[in-house]
Amino acid sequence: MAQVKGGELIFVQGSNPPSLDGMSTSSQASRNINMNIYETLYGFSEDIKPIPILAEGVEISDDGLTYVFTLRQGVMFHNGDEMNSADVKASLERYRIVGATKNLLAPVKDIEITGDYEVTFHMEEATPTFLEAFSSPRAPAVIIPEEDGDAEAGKNSFVGTGPYKFVEYVPDSHVTIERFEDYSADTRSDGIDGFGGHKTAWLDKVTFRIIPEPGAQVAALEAGEVHILEQIPMPAARRLEDDPDIKLYENLRWAFTTFIFNLNVPPSDNVKFREAVQVALNMEAIMAISSEGLYTLNHRWQYEDTAYDPGQIGAEYYNQADAERAKALLDEAGYNGEEFVILTDPNIPQHGRAAVVIAEQLNAIGINAVINQVDWPTALNIRMQDEGWNGWTLQMGIEPYLGPVGLIATLASPARPHFVVPDAGLDALYQELIKGATVEERLETFKKIQAHLYEIFAIIKVGDSGLMHAARSNVKGFIPFRFPRVYDVWLEG
Amino acid sequence: MIRFLVYRLLSAIPVLFVVSLVTFLIMWLVPGDISAEIGGVDATPEDLAAIRERLGLDRPLLERALNWYAALLQGDLGQSYTLNRSVLGAVLERLPVTLSLAGIALVLATAMGMLLGILAAVRHNTLLDQGAMVTALVGLSIPDFWFGIVMIILFGVWLGWLPTGGFVAFSESPVDWARSMTLPAFTLAITQMGVIARMTRSAMLDVLSQDYIRTARAKGMRARAVIFRHGLRNAMIPIITVVGVLSGVLLSGAVVIETVFSLPGVGRLIIGAIQRRDFPIIQGGLLITACVFVFVNILVDIAYAWFDPRGRDDS
Fold first, then answer.
1. Which of A350, A344, A253, A342 is nearest to A300 (CA)?
2. pLDDT band with cut points at 50, 70 and 90 for residue B11
3. Minimum CA–CA partner of B82 in chain A
């Protein structure tokens, strides 16, 4: 297939990017755009393994206390300057202050410039999983010019090294980026690979249009005014599946649908009660409704067949829909009809829909489940409180792309675990995980974690939820991923 | 008239003060703040506390309010937490969109509504009267978001005559500006036309039964002159009142239309700010919207005086 250079692609998403400062936000709406503008030293490949992007490579000392990163030479910033080690140090020092996940640099004692194209990290202690954490795309540790090193969060010049450069942002309307003619492609691979690889900007310009109303998004696509929808509602997708002008892209590995307990308050402080909920739930029904039919049943806390796939551990508790066993467990827990408050929000539609089905299923086995639906900021506020809620529906979108460390970090100390009360067993396993020297060792630990999560029932894996993208049929080269890679995409005709 | 205007402007100050104070108090009562939006779902309590401290959200309400009013007196509405620009700049760059939308919709709604109302009153108790009132009622009853989507599908997707959404500035291309405004303004107008039609009909019926109308007809004046020169002019006071109130409704009702048609207007700015808890934008946006509303009401008062000389004498 011959690629075509030129043209303007219009990509549609539903919400504004809260910031175009790549490192200071973990918002998906921002990442969609930022990952086409900025790049990191290391990032994840398609199969979620750390690969060098702006780095030539890294040499790790035997004691794990020194990481020497060599940089690719000749990499240009959008402002015309060449990237060097001073830019890298300034970027990472800024990340320590404004990075939305700045803790990922906590193991680094200091960063030393050891050459024009070389930086050395001196570590506090050996942290074998550091490179995985450092590759995190949640709020990526992007490299920006040294001049932006002192800029407050959100106040940098939006200059990066990526294949597209920032042009304009009109909130509630659009963000425009255009091809960076001096982009230094990574020639070590043949094509794109996860967040890295050999990237080519074919399009002259890409406009990210903000259209909040899904019906209006679909109408704009049908009218040919836009090229790609980040998400098309499933009923519209079914209607358009035979339309020759539209192509649908299933992105099955989009997010984990989860249900989180508050371990601090009754009745969810009782493990038998939580087990009852686990065995009572019919995951198929919850996933079918919450994802509008685009889902995979999966009990694992990783995607199947990835490096840390824990196999069948925990499967015996998953998708049981066993009302009798659940009622027996409720008796064992001494449950006597206390209110079970499910916190949810309508802003992420899967949250609200999952909550409704879960509440119905729990009511059916005699649990007095009530839904507290509030907007997203209020939900985040309430779940940070130790009381006032029992269960919380959460789509974990980026976590599956962070590897096991990034996922479990949200559930173990020193972070405040999602389920409020730290679990000593999980904390110990997390420490074991981050100290595992090899992938094999870490996989063994992760299997223990998977088993432990099905012992404490503090968080329930409901399933893997997918996302349907839609594009005009003249859009070529688009490969669904966790963010829209508008490089290596071109327009035909 | 100048004294009247000065009096009306001065009397707007306490109104605006109350608006801003109530907004402040409501924002204080609403749970959640911007720290969760900035920090993300995995932020620790320490991260959230640091963000609140940086933005001054940890300060007592009274202190925040006093600081805000002090800055306001110097013409500073503050900085948005998320948009990387001043509140005034953010609102002013959106105002043309909302004013275009509300302004065109108001003209359309007034023209269509008055036409229907006059026809209904002049042809009272005929099929035309009933037809006009059913049309008005349908316009009133249609949910604007639904009607908007129908318009998009009909004129944007099926016929391809007009864009499905988005805004083009007048300065960029007057033709594309008109095209981008047609569907949203018509949608907004159609749902408000009914109110004006019903009010016009009612006011005209009152006036047309007056002695001076009968006298005008008796002396052989042409029907058109009777209706427009003597009838409509005297029926204008209640119509102007409704149009004045509707201008406020259109400014606030434009939020739904701005969302359906993806227009970057003040309504979406404020709604987005509420969803993110971007307090300075909410506070400043509502204050400026209230100013526009007050200004429109002053215009309505001037129009009263224009149509009814007694008001001019009283003022």
1. A253
2. confident
3. A18
Look at residue B315 in the predicted model and tell me its pLDDT: 42
Q: Which helix or strand (DSSP H or E) is residue B190 part of?
A: helix B174-208
Whether residue B193 sits in one domain with residue B241: yes
Task: List CB contacts of A279: < 8 A, sequence separation 6 or more.
Answer: A317, A320, A322, A325, A326, A329
What ipTM describes this predicted complex?
A: 0.80
A8-211+473-491, which class in CATH? alpha beta
Q: What are phi and psi of A70, to 5 degrees?
A: -95, 145
CA distance A157 to A164: 14
Which chain A residues have a beta carbon less than 8 Å from that of B266? none
The verdict on A106 touching B (C-beta cutoff 8 Å) is: no
- Partners of A52 in beta bridges: A42
CB contact under 8 A, A26 and B40: yes
Indicate yes or no: CB of B40 within 8 angstroms of CB of A377.
Answer: no
Instruction: Say whether A52 sits in a helix, a strand or coil.
Output: strand
Q: Is A373 helix (H, G, I), strand (E, B) or coil?
A: strand
A100 shares contact with chain B (CB less than 8 Å): yes
Per CB-CB distance under 8 Å, the chain A contacts of B93 are 170
Distance of residue B76 Cα from the nearest chain A Cα, in angstroms = 20
Residue A379 to residue A457: CA distance in whole angstroms: 22
Q: Tokens at residue B37, please?
A: 């939006």
Q: Return d(Cα A368, Cα A266) in angstroms, integer.
A: 12
Q: Options 3.10.105.10, 3.40.50.150, 2.40.128.120, 3.30.1460.10; which CATH number does A254-466 get?
A: 3.10.105.10
Domain ranges of chain A: 8-211+473-491, 254-466
Q: Which B residues, 45 through 64, put their C-beta within 8 Å of a C-beta on chain A?
A: 45, 48
Would an 8 Å CB–CB cutoff place B276 in contact with chain A? yes
Q: Do A138 and B149 touch (CB under 8 A)?
A: no
Per-residue pLDDT, averaged over A302-312, amounts to: 91
pLDDT confidence band for B252 (50 / 70 / 90): low
Q: Is the pLDDT of residue B139 over 80?
A: yes
Residue A250 three-state SS: strand
DSSP state of B156: I
Question: Is A18 at the interface with chain B, CB within 8 A?
Answer: yes
